[in-house]
Amino acid sequence: MTGRWIEVADGVHARRYVELDLTVGLVIGAERCLVVDTRGDLDQGAELAAAVRELTSLPWSVVYTHAHFDHAWGTERFQPCAVWAHEGCRAELAESAEDDRAKWIAYYREQGKADTADAIARTTFVVPDHLFTDRAELDLGGRTAVLLHPGRAHTDHDAVVHVPDVDVLFAGDVVENAEHGFSAFSFSGDSDLTAWPDTFDRLLELRPRVVVPGHGDPVDADFLRYHRHGLHELIALKAAMGRGETTEAAAVAASRYPGDVTLAALATP
Ligand SMILES: [Zn+2]
What we know:
CATH class: Alpha Beta
Order of helices and strands: EEEEHEHEHHEEEEEHEHHH
Distance between the termini: 35 Å
Number of strands: 12
Structural class: alpha/beta
Mean pLDDT: 97
Low-confidence stretches: none
Strand order of the largest sheet: 1-2-3-4-5-6-7
Bound molecules: zinc ion
Number of domains: 1
Largest sheet: 7 strands, mixed
């Protein structure tokens, strides 16, 4: 259950976990710090809160990159604090969190991970109380963290956190660094495959030196360029299938991604 800090720039940290290959973040200013995602339940959130306190005793606020449980359900142990998110995140949590809770409890029971299932059952969701639409700047004291909605991609309410003084970008699940880049979890009914490359372009315009994904180790801008091409290929394959010019099997064979990833992308709305 323990994680591992990676200092990606002075006072800017990614924390890696074996569970779901999750990556969360911490940006430390001179007066305040910002926690980027809080893990998936109250026990995981308590672990993260203690880990943050090993690095800094400054007051914290939290930002959610999106509403999915593994990023946003560990906030209880950080309270009281400001919780930032894109405006769409609040409605998504309010609408779907209880259904998601039942789904993930069943998932972890099936996996034989009763402790995690029980922790999810005991978790109280914390809905964000500081919302932004396009952009918000958080003054951390001597350092600004910029919250941005770069467009639709993994969800319709993705938020990324740019730390311009060190060119670090926390991208949430807009960027994943699974074995082949995207995973089957990257694409769901919440995702917008067609809009995703433009969203990548907006991230690249920030000229990040380090991009911290929502899952996997930190990457660079070249990683985004490679997978922007991959997204364009997936969009073309989906369009060709829609026109009846290719079969699902042929699309899977032509894709640079594994079958499960390609099928998940082709199944997006
Ligand atoms: Zn997600």
